[in-house]
Write a structure and sequence with these properties.
13 strands, alpha/beta, 5-stranded mixed beta sheet
């Protein structure tokens, strides 16, 4: 494949994976395939719907009006589609995992696998952004915050990781693409190249090149549920970094672990470009969800065009 030179007018799409574990059809398939006690990475509660997607779409409409299409990647059945979502909107596209993921791993409960095959989405623009449904944009963004003429802007630095499943997948990916930057520490800790909780810009053609170049390693890493052998999407920006197509970004992310009611009360939506609301909740989920929705309504009131 030839190198793609991007023009300022090149369209930019936004890709969001979405899952709701309260959906009975999803739960039936999950219980059918899960075996024994599941760890934190694969527990069904990891897939709870806080309705952050609604506010993410509002934030895209308000602060990133230049986004062309929004692709929502889902699994199992149409009962996963939120009832409030305007699926008739010309810019909203539902992508089913079976359209992109190798069929032998379906149904899939592993975002690592889905992420690797995002470049296979039919119709996806050459430039695209990727973020989970709990990433909400909090102030105006421009395309040049994420993309250069022929590359991307992203904060990649050395982050400290332990030895859990998630860390192992980052280690595998870094070791494959840029082993010279992997620093081993005592007691099983590593300093690894990573972009911690970011809306990640991608170049489709370059990612497709990586899919071909590392085809064997990627296919060997696949599994229905998260496992320590997995690779992750980080291989794509790392490949760009190797080619000199990655520049340091300046988008500021405010990461928040939703642990209890106080963590919701104390959310600070100011002084950041993107706020991340990660589910680690231990209190009453429905009560916490109602509290969070009230907080989000304060900063992003009113329906977007993507809502019915």
């Amino acid at each position: 494949m030839e190198k793609v030179i991007l023009k300022s007018s090149t369209p930019i799409d936004y890709v969001i994976p979405f899952v709701d574990c309260s959906d009975e059809n999803w739960l039936v398939e999950y219980k059918k395939h899960v075996s024994g006690p599941s760890g934190w990475s694969n527990n069904a509660t990891r897939f709870r719907d806080w309705e952050t997607l609604r506010y993410q779409l509002r934030s895209i409409e308000r602060y990133m009006p230049w986004i062309r299409n929004i692709y929502l990647v889902m699994s199992i059945s149409e009962t996963q589609i939120p009832k409030w979502l305007n699926t008739e909107h010309e810019r909203v596209h539902i992508v089913w995992d079976w359209e992109i993921v190798p069929r032998e791993y379906l149904p899939i409960f592993n975002s690592n696998v889905i992420d690797l095959y995002i470049p296979c989405i039919e119709g996806l623009s050459e430039r695209y952004l990727y973020a989970c449904d709990d990433y909400i944009v909090m102030r105006e963004q421009k395309p040049e915050n994420f993309f250069t003429k022929d590359g991307i802007r992203l904060r990649v630095g050395l982050c400290l990781f332990g030895s859990d499943t998630y860390a192992q997948t980052i280690y595998n990916s870094d070791k494959l693409i840029c082993p010279q930057y992997v620093i081993e520490r005592k007691d099983g800790y590593y300093l690894l190249p990573y972009c911690n909780h970011a809306v990640v810009p991608h170049l489709k053609t370059e990612n497709q090149i990586a899919l071909i170049e590392y085809k064997t390693e990627i296919e060997t890493s696949l599994s229905r549920f998260r496992e320590g052998k997995n690779l992750t999407w980080i291989i794509y920006p790392l490949c760009l970094m190797k080619k000199g197509l990655l520049q340091k970004g300046n988008v500021v992310t405010n990461y928040n672990a939703l642990i209890d009611e106080n963590s919701i009360r104390n959310l600070n939506f100011k002084d950041c470009d993107v706020i991340v609301l990660n589910d680690e909740y231990q209190d009453d989920f429905e009560k916490g969800k109602a509290m969070l929705i009230n907080r989000l309504e304060e900063v992003l009131p009113g329906k977007s065009e993507f809502e019915k």
